[in-house]
Write a structure and sequence with these properties.
The complex is a heterodimer. By secondary structure, chain A is mainly beta. Chain A is built from no helices and twelve strands. Classes of the chains: A mainly beta, B mainly beta.
């Protein structure tokens, strides 16, 4: 079984300040880790993912996440947020279950950037 | 770019009605998924399909059924809508392969059952 925990349901932050959105996971097998973003009135879209190799992965819009196996975490960070980053962020783990892809999503963190 | 479309952005139905939610993807993906999204609960998998005419139950299939007659189309059916099915419904697709695959989502259908 696999699970994802996002402890922070909402994170308010001032524009140009740094932010960290926390994600912890559990799984009995190897998994792959994702962050998806949902802008208002839209579906989810991939922000970044960790498959293997370097534990630090980056997105094209300045977000980064670090895979920490010992702490079973995949926290998302950005050094300076912009108003346009206001959205809901979902952490997800993906593994194989019965030969199929099984994706488990966290409950989401709403990032509110304050001007 | 992958495009996943859903037939309606907003739907209002009455209790007991049969409801059809349609999803179409244009990237020839084998895998398609239906989730519901509720505040504080994140996304929960209702059903998924890995091939035409094939379906598998997800975590919360009760009260729902699905149909996959064509590769590009995956329909979610609420046989007799109830108020606890008021939710945001998201369709997704992905190409076959391992657990590394990215899922591509439609814009969602917000369903209100009165």
């Amino acid at each position: 079984a696999q699970s994802v925990t996002q402890l922070d349901s909402q994170v308010p932050v001032f524009e140009e300040a740094p932010v960290e959105l926390r994600c912890n996971y559990s799984s009995s097998v190897s998994v792959y880790l994702f962050w998806y973003v949902q802008y208002p009135n839209q579906g989810l879209q991939l922000l970044l993912k960790y498959l293997s190799g370097s534990t630090l992965v980056e997105s094209i819009n300045g977000f980064e996440a670090e895979f920490n196996k010992s702490q079973t975490s995949f926290h998302l960070r950005k050094p300076s947020v912009h108003i346009s980053d206001t959205a809901e962020y979902f952490c997800a783990v993906s593994g194989n279950s019965g030969g199929y892809q099984k994706v488990t999503f966290g409950t989401g963190t709403k990032l509110q950037v304050i001007p | 770019d992958v495009k996943v479309t859903q037939s309606s952005r907003y739907l209002v139905k009455r209790t007991g009605e049969k409801v059809f939610l349609e999803c179409v993807q244009d990237m020839d993906h084998e895998n398609m998924f239906w989730y519901r999204q509720d505040p504080g609960l994140g996304l929960r998998l209702i059903y998924f399909s890995y091939d035409v005419k094939m379906k598998e139950k997800g975590d919360i299939p009760e009260g729902y059924s699905v149909s996959r007659e064509k590769k590009e189309r995956f329909s979610l059916i609420l046989e007799s809508a109830s108020t606890n099915q008021t939710s945001m419904y998201l369709c997704a697709s992905s190409s076959p392969g391992s657990a590394q695959e990215t899922q591509y989502f439609g814009p969602g259908t917000r369903l209100l059952v009165l």
